[in-house]
Amino acid sequence: MRLFTGLRAQMLALGLLALIALPWLGASLGRALLGEAAQAQTHNALSVANGVAQFLTGRPELLDPSLDPALQALEEIVVSRARLIEHAVRLDGKSQEWADLMGFADRHQLSKIDPALKDPPDFQSLFAANEEFLYALLIARDKHIVYRDRNGLRLYRSDHLRIELIDAEGSAHHYAISPTKAGWINAHLLKGDPLDGLPDRPEIRIKGMWKEQGDGFLVELRIPRDMLGPKLEATLSLGDVDEADAENPRVTLLNARHSAQPGKPASPPSAKEKPLDDSRGKALSALLGGFRSFAGQMVIVDKTGRELARLGAPGKDDGMQQTRFWTPWAHRLLPTAPQDANAQALARPVMAAQLTQPQAVWSRDDPLRAPVARAAAPVRHGDSTLGAVWVETPLDGLQRALERSAAGLLGALLSLMAALAIWMGWLGLAFARRVILLRDQLHEALDPDARVLAAPTPARAPDELGDLSRAFTLILVRLDEHNRYLAGLADRLLNHMYAPLASARAALQPLQDEQAAADQNAAQAAAQALQALGPLETLYTALHQSRELDRALAENDDAPFDLTFALSGGVNSLKQRYPEADFSLERPTDPVMVMGVQSAVALMCEKVLENAAQYAEPGSTIRVELARQGGMAVMTTRNLGPALPTQMGDRLFDAMVSVPPEGTQPPADGLWRPGLGLSLARRIASRHHGEIIAQSLDAPSGVLVTIRLPLAPI
């Protein structure tokens, strides 16, 4: 039985926690296998992307129609549809907020270029809408920007933007923007014939930002939707002027028209929105059709990020089943994707259009889902990039098995750790409770004089603490037996001492009286013999008093009594025994009630007062005070005289210790002191749950004895 309940066995059980290293090693092996599989799948995806890109390099016209003379140029007017967004666009002249929508941008250029134009203009347009505004972004290529003169009235003699809005009633409203410098811009409502470009008044509801950049400029516009009809019909015409000083400068117009049903969700351009040439579409479809068995996605984009062809759809990965509360944390046992800067660059197909070199990486976008391997290869034509091939394939084979095993392993570990934590907590509380109980039992079993008050009940637990409790109990039983033996020995000693002492004194006293007149020497010898009996009689009286005190404390029950009465009785008794001593008593007028044996407490007060009277300076006053402090009755006795011996310390209250204060002679009466008075006083104070302290006084020199006893409950 001890083999399973001892502390050593319990500590051995804690050591078995090392077994968790075995499943952890299994998880580490799974992590390594998944990492190798992910790297291999990533290389496969890169090989597929490179193969398709190499094919498209030989067919550049499939990505850029300008490289095929048989393809027609883009139309002068392209109808666009705004992308639906939920946030507001900040008009700051920066295109970062439009980055995710650039794949939907339209390019505008002249279908027939006049040879007289030195720098034919072209621009890209992009529309976006939320619940309040229609936003437009125009990125123009114009190496020669002409701004309007501050004092000029005509808006068409410089680079400008013409705006035509169709309201809810179908009426057209014409506006123009002709800035004097780059920065914030506002539109002007045109009056009369819109072709004249004469401003009527500013239209502050149409706001925008005109910013120069590179070889042209960028314009951001914000138009309230309440100025438009339900179809959000608007036409933006970019007017390019290269000869600002001419009387009638030549204006080249490029148009971008917007028309869409409001609230339609944004989606990638479809064949209906931006149709590809039939031959291009068939060629790209035929190319991707050869990879139908490919497990993943393959997307071909042009250099603007526009999606031209797609194979496959985003896989539906349900991730780990949420069967346990710890399941979301199981991915921590699985390998994490390497920290690669290319992971973000390959997150979406539109970002692959910016690459110049083939790249591949595997990553985990969601910790609860399988990682994916992504690769992208650019399609090059000379020094320029025509587009890119983006490939994504999920790693959901070995990953699924590892996720299930990791979730189960984590659940088992959490359950084991929870059980161990509860067990350790209970074990610690039980251990502490038993140690505290043993300490309290030992503290209550002994008094300050090492007398056994009550032996504790030995513990029955068959462990080391139980052995310790039983050992302490046995020691206390042996100590109690020894104390009883000493007590019986003292009783027998008193009985044996009483008769010889009484007989000796009875025989010597008459002899001293009879021989006093006849033989002086015999009388002196009898007196010396009687004097030698004095210490033995004093010792007998002290031992008898100690035994009587033990009987009184054992036989009498505690009862409330007035401490002032016991203290006054002790002072009066000492005044009679020491008439030369001067006692001063200060006490409360009302009773100071304490619990205990009144005769024992009175004896304690008498012993303390007697000690003060024996060593007080002649003619000095012994001050005795009684007061209440909190829940304690405090009695102090202060006498002037030599200080206590520094070498005594706490031994002053030990039995059979009697050392006079420093610098003093034995008491004037010449009687030997057995050293039991203060020992009895400490026993009585401890029996009544109090304390007694003696300390020296410096100025003036003396001794202060303080007794504290608990007040009786009211």
Automatic annotation (TrEMBL):
KW Kinase (keyword) present: yes
GO MF annotations, alphabetized: protein histidine kinase activity
Record keywords: Kinase, Membrane, Phosphoprotein, Transferase, Transmembrane, Transmembrane helix
Pfam families tied to this protein: HATPase_c
Stretches assigned to the Histidine kinase domain: 492-713
Regions crossing the membrane: 409-432
Residue numbers spanned by region Disordered: 255-279
UniProt EC number: 2.7.13.3
Record's protein name: histidine kinase
Organism: Magnetofaba australis IT-1
